[in-house]
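ingest -> fold -> write
write: protein_1
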Amino acid sequence: MPLRTGAWIRLLVFVLAVGLNLPAVDAGTFEVDSRRDVAVAKRKIRAAQFLSRATFGPNLEQIEALAERMAQIGTRRACEEWIDQQMALPAAYHRPLAVDMIARDGLNSQQNDAYIQRYRYHAWWHCALAGEDQLRQRVAWALIQILVTSQDGAGFNDVGAGHHSGEGRWLGPTHYYDLMVKHAFGNYRDLLEDVTYHPVMGVYLSHMRNRKTDEAANRFPDENYAREIMQLFTIGLYELHLDGRLKTDESGNLIPTYDNETIKEFAKVFTGLAFKPHPNATGTGRFWWGNEFEEPMEMFDFEHEPGLKTLLGGEVIGSETSVDGDADIAAALDNLLAHDNVAPFLSRRLIQRLVKSNPSRGYIRRVARKFNNNGQGVKGDLAAVVKAVLLDPEAWSGQRLLGRSRPYRVQVIARGTDYSTLSEPVIRYTRLLRGVHATSNHHSGRAMLMSQNYNWTQEPYLSPTVFNFYLPDYQPPGSLLGYTPSRRIPNGFLAAPEFQINTPVTSNRLAGRYIWDISNQMSQQRWSNSTSGISHSSDMIFHLEDEELLCTEDDDMHELMDRFDLVFCYGSMPQDYKDRVVEVTTAETAWMKNNPTWRPRMEEFRVNAALMATVLSPFAAVTQ
């Protein structure tokens, strides 16, 4: 139940008016009782900062557990140990989970009257919110935004059979997503090969049934996948130094990594692939008769472009006397991965998706070196790369933690624009649900969330283009007044990718979702089909009982705000803001203390107000 309307309006106006006008470097403060507690508070902030990148959002217990381990073996060693433990966990896959969820609800994947495709979202949200393998799931979410497909491709929502088991064709994109889960800590070369052969990618970027040249019929190989595997998946448009700086020629011009002739040559490589054929297909009909969306495409050499192909660096592959399409693809992938651009290109993108929008040249270079050599002579080891991204000193440098005495306290100084990133909407919402220990009331106990794309224009499987939800170099319109980017950032400009989908509409819808959920202390998930009578109802219930215990006495709410700051803002919320939230919230609820009707709800209203003021603030949206 909400507070009186006027109270909510005043509180939300305060959030906007005060929060948006506080300088980025304003200090947050955690008051403690002793010098020892100063060190404890610092470790908790570092733990929260780390877990915000390595998971879909921490809760207080996870923060405190990692902070305690930091006290025992040191901050970096504790985080590295945590990573190693996460990498050792079995992977939670989305496709089998979705099928099991469907069966538990008494449905089947080819059912046409139950919006059956919603189970792809149910499975994704459950893995993100409840999966033990949090790091793997978070890295998979980063990879799927590089190796993009979308459910909006041809036939990707069909409920007809798309697998030999008889499961619905719509499960194909979920099976593709699981490649990211499978290879999250594997080798990028192996991931790229599986992506190349997956029928969902084959359909999405149209190298499925890509045929060899027939000049008489004016038919030439499709160039779509050949272009995107270079531009988006491996090397980018222009040559790079190892630290992410763009190379230039003697005239100061950027140096393209490939040209149209290179695209044509790679297009020849990606010919001859088609669905795994139907068991009854024979002869050349095997190329045309198939609809298998969860088995790798097969190579049909009679439709593969014969002859030599000249690739990057002038390398020539293929043969003038025989045709071996699979060998050509393997050689082409090796050719791509051997290019000097791959390491800095992919390193920057993974840093952007996991840590910050504008990594320095040194940060990119250090991660790129690890991509090129994991220490054992192996290139493309994603486990080594992820560890390098998360443990780099720059990943910690967005905040300065200063221990003070008289009184004992920790001051947190956010270092500003160069070190920050706007959190993507999906991550902001998972952080809320995980931070409040949300649990499902569905009979299976699983998080059965529906698609949230309407609220904030971002959802798994719904990228609008192959370029992802936002471009890695996107800059909001207008000049960045009064601010000069650090020379440490390559190429002299600041990017803010997530701002591309941060519009007035999406901001209002996100705020509306937060207000609704927090007011009711649950995330409601409802769907029904009036024709079939089939309905879906499951809620994610918030658990804020411990936080409500800090709302009885006015002064205790300062401890509550420190807790919310730690869990949702990772120490970056300015002290003035926290104090003002306590002041406004206690004033607006003071009338309840002596009102026998409303007194039992005072703690609930206070914790809701404080939580709302936290997660709607810029300090939760922009992380350092």
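write: protein_2
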Amino acid sequence: MISSSQKGSANPFGKLSYLIIDDFESFRLSMRQMLRSCGADKIELVGHAAPAIQYCTYNHVDVVLCDYNLGEGKNGQHVLEELRHKKLLRRSSLFLMVTAETSKEMVMGAREYQPDGYLTKPINRAMLEKRLGSLIEQRNALLPINREIDRENYPEAISLCLQMLPKQPRYKTWLMKTLGDLYFQLGDLTHAIKVYDDVLAQRELSWARLGKCKVLLANRNYDDAVQGLQQLIESHPDYMEAYDLMAEGLKRQGRLPQAQQALQKAIEHSPNALLRQKHLAELAASNQDMNTSADAWRRTVALGTYSIHDSSEHYLALSQTLSDLSEGNTEADGVDQANEALSILGKMEKRFSDEDGIGTRSRIIQCRVHAGQGRQQEAEKILTAVRKEFEEAGASSAEAGLDYAKTLFRLNHPGDAKKLLADLAQRFSDNPDVLSKIEALLDEPVGFRQKLQARAFTRQGIKAFEAGELDAAADAFTKALSVVPDHPALNLNLIQVYLKQSEAEANQGDLVAKCRALIDRLETLPEQHRQYRRYTALKRKLEGMT
């Protein structure tokens, strides 16, 4: 029966369409009855995630009431994640998470995708009418603004926000937050930061502090942004967006270990965010923390099972990381890592069997896994098949080509690897990211453990040179070059050490000869290489010495 507050033509419930998603039919029917008693009419019921997403693909829904636990397969978080990712919900649509579970892990995971509210079971009609009624009232008041945002007509949306501010003081917080976001999206950073400063002058609100820090980052004011985010996290340790933004700020400062720590702290609070786990995996790898990277890739793969963000690239990255960790390690842990890599590749081939070239990419890594465990014959056998596949189809992507070149280096085919990288450099000449990866692979065409060894010697050499300990510096750089003999920066570092030594010695001949031998190693260095200008400067200096 419709309550007196819902009688008449102004029935906010009756004008909207509803979707109830719950795996228990009795609950679906109960919710429908309660909605009808509130005045709702157009109500669709589904039992699981797949039909819910399909329904939203072909029908506009104003209100989604979705249970968190939907049985086997996707849960409510996955449904919300996919609807947001595919833009199947308009900004004016409401998504309420319905759950009997209130664990922090569940709430934090679901909150990442910003549901409009939560309903905790058991639910009665009075609770539903009060909670949903207030959300519908807000939705209707803000509908003109959200409509323009959905159309990406941001200037008109800003104009409507400014008009509504004096008329709707109860929605001031929403209007100011939306204004800041809209100005930022338009690149109007001056107006954006003014919005956030005006809010913060009256009250310390976490979203306003975050917005201001986002603007500071965009203006390259990294120190103030990071400091502000640190204070925000101290006050609100569950505010996940602050950790993500702080990691970005620390990266831009070049403080990669600290950026990794920020993401690890966020994951302690909210472990179910796939994209954050992926970001951590990539950041840890850039810090050479391969064990942390492997753990984060494992969680990324596991979280992807029912996620719209699932990707074969996650499986490839995990197996590549495990291959690096297991290379040359035939102890029990190394064998386990190698076997895990092969197992992950097998699962990937089944899960993504319809992707072009997925088998080839799998076999490229299998080569390295077997070679790293001393199974050279098996590795070469697989490489023969890979060669044929590449000759027939070529590198379908830069990533595939780079990984193949890495394998060719590992299996002692440097000529083929360099030829392939030269072809890739030509194909992707307008892609600086790919060119940088090609350069890095040419500089250090060795395994992970050898890279660590060379980099440790390099750090020793730089430290010794800065301390004026030239003999120790020369010794350290020589040891590093024994691992990566063609590394341009290391060759140039050693030349600089020898030149510095020659200034204090009467007989310069031997040292200058050593310098010329080192500079000759780099005669094929391409002009695009980041060390090329340094190379030409030192070459001219040596040519001027008798």
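write: annotation protein_2
Residues 1-9 have pLDDT under 50 and may be disordered.
The chain has three domains: 4-142, 225-443, 450-543.
pipeline exit 0
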